[in-house]
Amino acid sequence: MVHCGAGFSLRGILVPLAGKRAEARPTFAMRLFTAIEIPDEVRSALRAVLAYLRPLANLRWSPVENLHITTKFIGEWPEARVAELRSALRQVAMAPIEIAIRGLGWFPNQKRPRVFYAGVESPPELGALAVATERALASIGVPVEDRPYRPHLTLARVKDTAPLNALNNAIANLPGTGFGSFRAVSQHLYLSAGGKYSLL
């Protein structure tokens, strides 16, 4: 079993809010989300299969280093209120959760593919964690999602004219699509900036 590390902290890039008038003390926003980090063994297994699949379709492929299990997308959050955000997140309790990364698929479906993903198999506790995180953050003004929580790893996004036959044939002929399992014991706060995700 691999245990994910714990903690919320702050360091990273601050991005000025667009459209705000300059002031003596400017306001900054950080594009944030909470997620469960996947261990190196799982990441390596995904890297190997993606190296084989990536040349078969012209998609917007996610860097393997960016893969994670999102528990809550926060979006733009003022730097001046980060302490408030961290305080709300500390109220979210998390018991260990057994997670397996298994299966490949398309959102919303294979006939109208927009997102290529790896499946996340987990007990109800993962969904409960997402709900608890959403409720805690809603109490300080973070918008609530209007879609049900569906944990997954986003491997790529589909371009409008990308042919997918070769990719789908290769997926169908893979010897297996199990990428490993682990025990998650914490979620983390992440910063999204410049196409990279940084653990804060």
Q: What keywords describe this structure?
A:
Cyclic Phosphodiesterase, Chain: A; disordered N terminus; 10 strands
Q: Overview of this structure, please?
A:
There is one protein chain. The chain is of the alpha+beta class and 200 residues long. The protein has one domain: Cyclic Phosphodiesterase, Chain: A (Alpha-Beta Complex), CATH 3.90.1140.10. The protein has 4 helices and 10 strands; from the N terminus they run ββαββαββαβαβββ.
CATH architecture: Alpha-Beta Complex
> Can you identify the CATH class?
Alpha Beta
CATH topology: Cyclic Phosphodiesterase, Chain: A
Structural class label: alpha+beta
Proportion of helical residues:
10-25%
Q: What overall geometry do the principal axes of the alpha carbons give? A: globular
Q: How many structural domains does the protein architecture include?
A: 1
How many strands in all? 10
Low-pLDDT residue spans? 1-25
Q: Rounded to an integer, what's the Rg over CA atoms?
A: 18 Å
Largest sheet: 5 strands, antiparallel
Percent strand equals 25-35%
For the termini, the CA-CA separation is: 24 Å
Can you identify the CATH superfamily?
Answer: Cyclic phosphodiesterase
Quote the average pLDDT: 88
Order of SSEs: EEHEEHEEHEHEEE
Can you count the helices?
A: 4
